[in-house]
Amino acid sequence: MASMNLWQQFWYYLGENSSYILAQFSRHFLISIYGVLFAAVIGIPLGIMIARYRKLSGLVISLANVIQTIPSLALLSMIMLVLGLGVNTVIATVFLYSLLPIIKNTYAGMQGIDTTILDSGKGMGMTRFQILYLIELPLSLSVIMGGIRNALVIAIGITAIGSFVGAGGLGDIIIRGTNATNGGAIILAGALPTAFMAIIADFVLGLLQRILTPKEISTKK
C-alpha cells in the first residue's frame, strides 16, 4: 500500500473497509437526523409562539444566537460533563446548534404570511387552531423546511467531531487517518463521505423545499 499514490490508497482502503465505512456513515447520518428532529420538535413551536408574541422574539432568538457562537468543540465538552461520553452528548450538541435556523425560519415564515389571507380565515369563522394548521403552517412550510435544511447540513459537520467523545461516525475514520503514518487516504475515506452526505442532504431537502413552496410564491420568484 505504501508504493501506491494517494488515490490508489484511498480506493484500496475503501474496498477493504467498505462495511465499516458504511456502518459509520449510517451512524453519522442517524446522529445528525436525531439531533435535528429533536430541534424541530422544540424549535417549530417556539417559532410559532414568538410569531404570536413578538415581544419574546428578541429574547428567544438572542439566546439561540448565543448558543450558535459557542465553538462546537467547547459546547461538546460542556455537555459531556453532564451527559458523559457517547452518542447522547453529540445529539444534544446537534440539537442546540439546530435551534437557531429552525426557530428563525419558522418565525420568518409565519411573519411573511399575507394578513388578508388570515383575515379571510377569521371571516369564515375559523378558530386560531384551524387558521394555524390550515393556513399558516401550509403557507410557511417551505420556509420552515429551509431552516431544517440548513440545520441538517450544519449537524452533519458537527457530528464529525463527535468521535472525540466516543460517539462514532465518520469522524472516527478521520481521526484514525490523522493518527496513522501516511494516513491521507484514510482521512479522505472519512472526509469525502461526510461531504457527500451534506451535499445529498442539502439537495434532497432543497428539492422538498421547492415542492412545498406555494405556487403563487414560486411564480413570483
UniProtKB/TrEMBL annotation:
It is found in: Cell membrane; Membrane. The chain crosses the membrane at residues 29-53, 73-100, 154-175, 187-208. The keyword Transmembrane helix applies. It holds the Pfam family BPD_transp_1. Residues 25-205 form the ABC transmembrane type-1 domain. InterPro entries: ABC_transp_perm/SBD (IPR051204), MetI-like (IPR000515), MetI-like_sf (IPR035906). It is a multi-pass membrane protein. CDD domains: TM_PBP2. Its main location: membrane. The keyword Transport applies. Keywords: Membrane, Transmembrane, Transmembrane helix, Transport. PROSITE patterns: ABC_TM1. GO terms for cellular component: plasma membrane. One of its GO terms (biological process) is glycine betaine transport. Belongs to the binding-protein-dependent transport system permease family. This is Amino acid ABC transporter permease. It comes from Liquorilactobacillus nagelii.
